[in-house]
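Figure S7 source data.
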Amino acid sequence: MLKDLVNPTNVNIYVSKLSDVLIKAVEEPLGYAINWGRIYSLWPVHLETGCCSVEFGAASSPRYDVERFGMLEAFGSLRQCDLIVVLGTVTRKMAPRLRMVYDQMPEPKYVIAMGACAITGGLYLDSYNVLPGADSVVPVDVYVPGCPPRPETLIQGCFLLQEKIKRSKIK
Ligand code: SF4
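Tokens for the predicted iron/sulfur cluster complex:
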């Protein structure tokens, strides 16, 4: 009976079906575990040129304590960090540096644009040397609006990023 079912002509089909079943069985729990690790160990580096940096710093203070939500303080080196928070205006002169910082970070990496200046150029929108948003240089995952956004808003932005990571597929 088994001989009739499995023979040299169709054994490859069975093997490929079996591998599909195995991949489906481990893909979801493995992806969940890997994403869970990524969500609660976000390590930011910040590129700051404006007053939003005070709010960013306040988010790590004992009052807001962003670390309890799985985002470390911004003390790492670029080659360890997986999240870049862009604060303040990005000038044309700074744009290649921002890209260089982003390129040095290991995959997977995420970007938060914090404040009106980082999102649109803010007050300096019409300036000859300010870019209309960090997303013209790096791919932004989450926009945190405000001028400046309060630390709670940044924390809310982190939750949105964590939700996005949770839904992402492992490559
Ligand atoms: S968004 Fe407002 S607070 Fe933030 S850097 Fe620009 S001007 Fe300053």
